[in-house]
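stuck on this one:
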Amino acid sequence: MRPEFSRLVVAAGHEWHVLDNGPVLAERGIEPVGTILCVHGNPTWSYLWRSLVAAATDAASAPDAAPDAAPDVVSDAAAHKESAQPAASAAWRVVAVDQLDMGFSERTGQHRALAQRVRDLGDLTGELGLSGPVVTIGHDWGGVVSLGWAVDHPEETRAIMLLNTAVHQPEGDPIPAPLRLALAGPILGASTVATPAFLETTLALAHPALGAEVKAGYRAPYATAARRGGIGGFVADIPADDRHESRPELDRIAVGIRALDVPSLLLWGPRDPIFSDRYLDDLSRRLRRADVHRVEGAGHLIAEDVDIATLALSWLDDRAPHLDASETPAERPGVPRATAVTGAASSEGPTAPHYQPLWHYLEAFAESADTALVEMAPPRSRPQRTVSWRLLSRRVREIAAGLVASGVRPGDRVSLLVPPGADLTAVLYACVRIGAIVVVADAGLGLAGLTRAVRGARCQHVIGATKGLAAARVLGWPGRRISVSTLDPATARMLGVTHSLADLVALGRETPLPAVPASEAVAAILFTSGSTGPAKGVVYTHAQLSGIRSALAAQYGVGPGTGLVAGFAPFALLGPALGARSATPDMDVTAPRTLTAKAVAAATAAVDGTVVFLSPAAIANVVATAPALDDADRAALGGVETFLSAGAPVSESLLSAAAALMPAATPHTPYGMTEGLLLADITLDGIRDAARSRGRGAGGVCVGRPTATTTVRIAPLANDGSAADEPLDIVDVTGEIVVSAPHIEDHYDRLFFTDRAARRGTVPGERWHRTGDVGHVDSEGRLWVEGRLPHVIVTATGVVTPVEPELRTESVDGVARAAIVGVGPRGTQHLVAIVETVPPARAVGMAHPALASRVRDAVGSALAAVIVVPALPTDIRHNSKIDRARLSTWATSVLSGERMTRP
């Protein structure tokens, strides 16, 4: 902590310690635009805000300096360069207080309830002459005190920032267990005052653990029991029930903030054992103009877990020209439209031009006995089931009306934990029809990933099979539970199930359907694969989902009469929206490599399949199991006209082998992502033609030309590996790929900074998305992908993108797969090749000199090392995407002499 900011101030007869950069700014002749008022909680002190005070001072002193790298607020933040934001161009005075009886402020020896603390803060700001504009920021109980000050000073308050805190305890819910324990009788004094237990427990909540110097900083003002009285007083002041003396003041603040029509930022650590997401939900509802960013992996001490200074100052830099309290939310740049957030319904129906809702064909084919879908996927204990359009349409309508009768409302979030098949399809379309927001986080994320996704999405309802509901119960996932199957009463009680699908069907027969959702209302939140960090919730409106359907129909001619076989479950769910017969092959959806050629052939035969979609990981096993096909299987596959594979790069040889099983089909590999499906497309012949172009200087994987409704631009890479702000219409220049299409996502769910970074440098109001992929467009208009932005390697001689050297490595005899990573400091990194061999190695080791020599010759660049591994780590969902960031860290440890464990 820099001593020049520390000062003592006397207000209303009490001595306060504050950190204040005002005098330093004055010495430098800098006039601040306003004041950031920082209020700590318990048992911290103004030390909590040291980085914010310092960063604001440095930014004000050098506003034109090159922007610093910002915090990695989620582990794939660099993919969108959330960090490439200026700290701030405006000069802010920052005043961080030590509340009385806390930190190095006066020990008054008096009990100070919440209302008194709010008055105390007002006394101090009056003494300091803080007349506005003022931006408050608070954490823990300091968040409540700062909000109390804002309610009492509405004319001076121009914005609010909050870290984990709460202003309301839901009726009937007990306060968090750690606080109940701390409040329990003799434990209160012993844990908070007599011993430093409460302080030490709080310090242990940091992720990662705090260093010794930082811990010492927090402990400094609380060395003795006499100095810790305020800690006990703060805990005692928690309103555990309605009779507590501070309850009326807390209620006054909770009500009062609803009238504060100012921008607000909620920065949240989900791993907080005290302030869970339910308090975040409450605050986001009370604060009219809230921007929310949840930082996966961060917890209660989010100010230590994350560089909140850069985030806070960059948010203020965005909002500084818009801090007029009379401004409406719609005027704010970078904020999703209100209709996109609320999931509101419209009695007048959809308004977007050419919009056709996802359930269009369910209504159009409501009387058709033709096949809509065939259920071949697990659970395998049930026989194959064929569902007609008539039955599917009726079930969707009944379940939709039953959901309404059971209490599901438009805008409610519904998590689906249902295996692929008829039930999942019916439930999904029923939810969409009534305007409920479907949350899709597939089992391929793994249990930990699913838990983060479902909790982060704050679902009000969970619909699941018994296995999924059991996981929800054990892991404490939020939401009222609805079972796909009818359970016995004891099991239903144990799982917390209120209704079954059969119950909903019965209710729905007597209940009318609600108004049709507006086209711009939120329809779904789809979670990314988590291959580059924690899975992110991607928000789609009804119009955008309809746009995906339209793009697929136009690109591949999929529609009524098409037989669609999807070896990737989410893709199969679009079958009814396309009017196509659909089937998902019998496979374990959490492990794409379990798909066999016979399973694909059986599904193709069941729906007279003409279009087959398989993930890249699935293709390898399909090809490997092809000898088991009989004549009937080969005949079914012989009727396929279009074969698609997407989700990760597919080699020409593997695509050719798959194509040989479907000789009449044209193989395609679409390029896209959860944030924007089907952005470009290339055929097998196109891949072969592109391979010939590589010799003329092209590099990476060619993903073809943009689809009819997609525009691609490139944000060139700088020498430090960062991408430029402005995307350009240029050729043969490597940079971040930036796309525009009617069907790209609306925004990320409660990830303000991720969302802002995804649109950096684009025109407000236009639909652009920075993909985090790097590549280039060649002179023939083809898009080439060269890797991910976080995986760009910056050597002493320049920037290296990983995909092209990986392809060259994989061309070497004896190499099955490869990853190229950088080790060492960025700017002087060295290339390392990590390879799987044929046959697979039994253990990690340095490559045989002959193999290493062949790899070096193929790459054509200096390689520091070639390491052989039994298997490269990949993502869970696709089993295809190599985690280069993890490998880079691992390779660094191996080359530094640590034990050669598997990556």
